[in-house]
Please model this.
Amino acid sequence: MTETRSGAAFPVHGVRYDASVEIRNFSIIAHVDHGKSTLADRILELTQSVAERNRRDQMLDTLDLERERGITIKASPVRVFYRARNGRTYMLNLIDTPGHVDFGYEVSRALRACEGVLLVVDASQGVEAQTIQNAYLAVENGLEVLPVINKIDLPNADADGAIADLEEVVGIPADHAVKVSAKTGENVEAVLEAIVEHLPPPRGDAEAPLRALIFDAVYDSYQGVIPFLRVLDGRIVPGDRIRVVSTGREFEVDRVGFFEPGFAVSEALGPGEVGWLTASIKDIADTQIGDTVTLADNPTDRPEPGFKPAQPVVFSGLYPTDSEDYPRLREALEKLSLNDAAFTFEPETSEALGFGFRCGFLGLLHADIVQARLEREYDLGLIATAPAVVYEVTTTDGVTELIQNPSALPDPDRIASIREPYVRLGIYVPEEYVGNVMGLVQEKRGEMKDMLYHGKRVELRYEVPFGEILYDFHDRLKSLTRGYASMDYDFLEHREGALVKVDVLVNEERVDALSVIAHRDRAYEVGRRIVDRMAQVIPRQMFAVPIQAAVGGKILARATVRAFRKDVTAKCYGGDITRKKKLLEKQKKGKARMKQLGTVEVPQEAFLAVLGSEE
Amino acid sequence: MAPSLYLHVPFCPHVCPYCDFHKMRRDERLVARYLDRLEQEIDEQAARYPGRPATVYFGGGTPSHLSDAELARVVGALERAFGFPGTVETTLEADPLTFDPERLARFRDLGFDRLSIGLQSTQDPVLRFLGRAHDGRAAMQALDWALASGMRVNADVITAVAGQDAERDLRTVASSGVGHMSVYSLTVEAGTPFALRGVVVDREREADDFELAAPVLAEYGLERYEVSNFARPGDESRHNQSTWRGEPYLGLGPSASSHLPDGVAGAGAFGTRLRNPPIRRWLEGAPPESEALDAEGVVVERLLTGLRTREGVDLDRLRELTGRTPEAMAPAWWRDALRHRLLEVEGPRLRATADGLARLDALLRTFVQAL
Model:
């Protein structure tokens, strides 16, 4: 999780609580790269909540990783004030949301704190898969949708086409759509006017018992857990004794505040407001995202139903490269899971890698981000095993279990049946690429269910094994369609399949952490890809190391890591011995992302060989 | 048994761009202070480790760059303090341009019976690239004079230099009848002018030349007895063999190392390694850096040096000394190294095979990694 670095003191701006101010709470949702964060930046500039001199691109993306990758991962809130043309001043609470398909769960959390959304559509791209998915999510949550057609400065922009798309494909009335260029700032003020005019104000009762929804949280080493709240009814002031509804735990509020977008202190939080509180909450388990906060002496009888918990769909093992870091890894995972409710972990043991954790993620990007945050924010050296989906196995004695780790698959003679997860896959693509897409999905054992024409764009609907689209599918889809295709998927069901476990042997010993499950007809291909990729990424060794893929006892594919031709120091006399010994010690410490399997030094990338693109 | 002696002379007529030994150009006042301090150190150390050594080795730097009188003064001090020459072997490192037959006779008179010549190559472009002052003709002339002097002779050759015909160098030098050759792959050491210039050694070329040396030199009766050292049977460097066996030696002079069994403050149960400071601080009398050895460190050292040699490591003696065996310390490593024929065991001796010798650094890395 994010450790705030604010230390003990938050800035105090002497903000007076004013119950009469009008509020609009909204999120911005979009397909990835359609300009959501840029629009958020312009809104902040226009409302001057961030001085021009402090302006950085993507100001709301607070994690280093977000800025680096140019994507938003965490929903992050901010409060601004806008003086509208009608002469009234509005408090706008903007909650930026992630755009990547993995982070749909973050979007749904953010939406619970809002009455409306800006649905951003790139005028040059039109409606994409996540435009549809996010728009449906907003509508399901009862939110007002305000379309914003972005990037109208691009030469190939077709704003009217995008508006027509929205109405026809998504079924969202677009008469109020605002056409803007977030990049140049053109017409962004009209967005603010439209927010004030078309998005509904929050309805809350200041006199009713406190009812506040926890929609996110961070951990601060001084303040403890800081929940992010949307107040539905009632007010919170410092000194209040609050109760967390699901656990019954009570805390005394130290401070409350809002986001500017950093933490700012205020006198109170009232109905409709979005903010945070501190209450010396030390235990991460004491506040669950989706929970309701109320007052201990005047509790609400209408707690929020809570969020539908996000189910992790992809699992991978995380192991410290230095086994002494195991307790630190556990602590880091606990903190991280606090504000990433979709992430799960439990201890597991690998013969090859020792003690670690099996972690559940929403998708590969999510897994990648979590690992990067652990390494960067917690300074941990990690080995991650290849992400895998969850299989259902029924054994011959009639017991059904869920298999999150391929190496845990029972022996074939004990298996009555294996079922793998299927997803509904939607692909949205210009019609000239339909043939390429069909070929690709067929290769992945996908079954076409529908094909819908929207003008020159085609929506292809498939049912496909999730495991097949996990690794290189998205990249290949993009390259086969010159980047034009977009996709989304949701979980369908588990279906029986002819699945086998592909084992990997390094130096003739099976490495449990490298096993994968594959369809019998594709086992050779998968095995081939793993061994070839491993042979590429494992550096030369002191002897030629065979890398083999096997099903049962049968070797399917083999590659060889070559031996050094010469790796020996020329001179080693009396004066060189100490220096040489020190070098050996230094080299030993320098193997942060290497794991020694027997005598073979295996780098982190090798454990992800199954992900390797087919070059 | 008295330790062997190593004496470091840090002065060179000129400084070669690949060398990372402790060395400098000659400066008369510095040489005078060096000799004074050296005499003092010789006396101090002889009080602790008295007795005539089996082997004495003058290394550098360029020891032959000292004048006859200066050499005589150092030899005299050693003779008084420890006894000189060594009972078995007394070596002087020499640059080809620092001696002629007369000077060789004076070396012999002083007690030196073995000369190690920094010949490096017989090819002029290679010698120029290496920044050597001599040409190929001078190199061979020096070698012939040395062989005619009656001393035992070593010639150093550097391989893996771009544009070098390494085989021709090896054959030219070996056909002189020299009884010992040291053949080193050019190594670009950090901080040297070569490193600063970004000189890169072609790894394939380096491996080619490495594989070439043993079969070519065997034709001349020179057998590999250490990674980089070849000798006719009986003509091995006894001094270096002793250090590779883990036997004690005493280092004298700036930056010289010692490996001593005991008698020093902070000595571990398995002896101590010491390294004198570089010349300025050595002249001021600054103490050496010391490292107390433990059982594990001794095993690492014995593998580090012993596996480089044809005689290998005596596992029985190692176990008697340390209570440890590499097999028990790193079972998977042991099994793989034997299975892949990088190491072989014969009686009590553990040896690197030809493949193991070529990849010894990787073997040692993985051994230390497994600890």
About this structure: Confidence is low (pLDDT under 50) at residues 263-267 of chain B. Chain B is about 40% helix and 20% strand.
